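Usage

Read records sequentially. Each one opens with the input sequence:
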Amino acid sequence: MKISVVIPMFNEARHIGRTLASIRRAADFARIECELLVVDNGSTDDGPRIAVAQGARVLDYPGISIGALRNRGVEAATGDGLAFVDADIEVPPDWLTVWRDIHDRRSADVLALVCDIPADAPWFARVWQYRGNRRARDWLATSNLCMPRSWFLRVGGFDEGLRTSEDKDFTLRLHRVGARLLSLPAPKVIHWGYERSWREWLGKEYWRQSGGLKLIQTGGGLRALRFPLLCAGVAASTLVALALALVCPLPAALALLPGLLAAFVLVLRQRASRHPLFMTQLMALHWLRLHVAAAALLSGFFRRPARRPERG
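and closes with the structure output:
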């Protein structure tokens, strides 16, 4: 089996060398023929040069969506198997060995490994990453994905009209047509592009949530409306609390309760660690994210798309 690894990239000079070296190591370990395709979105740093030096083929497609980048990579790919890896991900040496065994046993059609994060990352980045490791049954994140090319073709690839949430949309469509999705907790990939500051965390969350309105418009159904409505309700309760604070503190505090309760429910649904400190930190991050998402959705109505944050 030959596998083509598609890596979308935008200003990832800090990480792309490590990512490509880990993929080549995994291919050598598994003795699998591997094709490296870096699809560049108009980088202005040394990322493309580093990628070429690491043996990757670099395709230049500036100014298009991340879903379109992945689709252009598949168009150039020659392998029977496809893998999608983010440019800031380090895969373990047995990554492709695990995928080959699962493929040969036909125990799943699409594989993703859970992400880990360096121990020296800020607490909010660690908590948010661990929160993202909850394994959904009907969709997978695309920081790393392996699948046969046939499944990609069956659903028509990624939706190029989505600025964000294209991974959720793609794997939800795979699930609907019968693909068996598998997320493994071990071995783990390492996410090196973690948020190093509050500004970066807020900026990334704003950008990620900016695709929510488009996802609803593309046929997400009633399920896709649940989170936007929750965000709107929480943001409204906070605005009411701020208005009441000018008159009486007690009603203002009560008005904040719906938002705090929503954040607490999100923590419980993710079935993460029950350690009190972790739950409190995650609850605070969820509460902030609900407001950031509400702002991103509002900007979508006024046609002010969020700018993609740079990494590296």
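Summary fields computed downstream for this record:
- The two ends are 33 Å apart (CA to CA).
- Residues 199-301 form one domain.
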